[in-house]
Amino acid sequence: MAEMLLREAEMPTAVLMAAGGAPRVLIAGGGTGGHVYPALAIAEAIQAQCPEAVIAFAGTRERLEWRAVPAAGYSIYPITAAALPRHLSLRALRLPGKLAQGFFESFRLIRAFDPDVVVGTGGYVSAPVLLAAWLLRRPIVIQEQNAFPGLTNRLLGRWAARIYIAFPEAQAYFPADRCVLSGNPVRRALRQVSRLEARRRFGLPEEAQVLLVVGGSLGSAVLNEALMQAVPTLLDEPRLYLLWQTGRTHYKAVQQQLLGLTKQVHHRIRLLPYIEDMAAAYAAADLALCRAGALTCSELMVTGTPAILVPATQVAADHQTRNAESMVRAGAARHLPETELSTRLVTEVWTLLADAARRASMAKAARRMARPEAAVQIATTVLELAMRRQKQVRGRHG
């Protein structure tokens, strides 16, 4: 399918316009769900507004996008991408070659696919694609998920036609006249599942208190280990059930450790390597214990899920802490640092589950922060920019 689309993309622009001038959009972003799922939400919104739009993705073969994008029905093209190493090593010596290869592939893809607009949602793969797009004079749109923007977006933001941000704290890093506070794009399905139906899907009793544990799309060894230590005490509360996403790489180890629990405790744990149906997971939960990645925070806002946020510390510029602090200031979440996780986890969970009024207040505050129409807003701009470029091309061709 990808090869067929690339052959179509190699057709001259004038021929495509004669065939109807369908807008062509290339979206670059990947690595984790925090970059991939906002990109897919934008694509979904573009297609809802303009069904004839031709949308393709640029990504890396080894990461989440290579599975998630085709599953959503879109073509994806491989681009070589590399993380900036923290220490001098053999890997660091290979970096210039990988960067050059990624830029060459990006340049070639944009010439072949001929997009009217290129959208970047972050991750290492977005840097060469957006840079090549700018050099080839294609309008670029950036979507920044975090309160503290990543290096790629901060650098490329000066050339973007529009920068969409999710947290007001990010405004200081971009040109004010092109920066829009939109929130993070999230999937429409997140708001379409009832609590009763959600609990049925996971086999959870209607009267249970449910703690959802999610360590991001890849899982979190830190959260898994802390929860494993706390489970015997935590589940002393007989109404409490756990809906626990471990991450695919951690699942077997956690499953093995849980074998030692009593049957009475074990049957109240729903252990999953990955939760595909996050709409149902949020709807089923009374409280979430999770990382503070941008996508997670935005989904908590849209679904109004009270949360205890444990920011990952080994991330660029400690941006998850900035995300968590923004939600705490709004009254939508509690911040539990990794260093205090083992000592405070049980108390924090029990305290919030025992206080329905507090959780209702947190849910209300989260929804106030939510901007559920972010994807629609971004899609509208992308299509407007595409139309503007097509008019410019028509003008140049007489």
Question: What brief labels describe this structure?
Answer:
398 residues, alpha/beta, Rossmann fold, 2 domains, seven-stranded parallel beta sheet, six-stranded parallel beta sheet, disordered N terminus
* CATH superfamily annotation of the largest domain: Glycogen Phosphorylase B
Output the number of helix runs: 17
Order of helices and strands: HHEHEHEHEHEHEEHEHEHHEHEHEHEHHH
Average pLDDT number = 88
Distance between the termini: 34 Å
Taking strands numbered 1, 2, ... along the chain, how are they ordered across the largest sheet? 3-2-1-4-5-6-7
The major beta sheet can be summarized as: 7 strands, parallel
> Which geometry do the CA atoms define?
elongated
Domains counted in the coordinates: how many? 2
CATH architecture of the largest domain: 3-Layer(aba) Sandwich
Backbone CA Rg: 22 Å
pLDDT < 50 runs, ≥5 residues: 1-20
The oligomeric state is: single chain
CATH class of the largest domain: Alpha Beta
What do we call the CATH topology of the largest domain? Rossmann fold
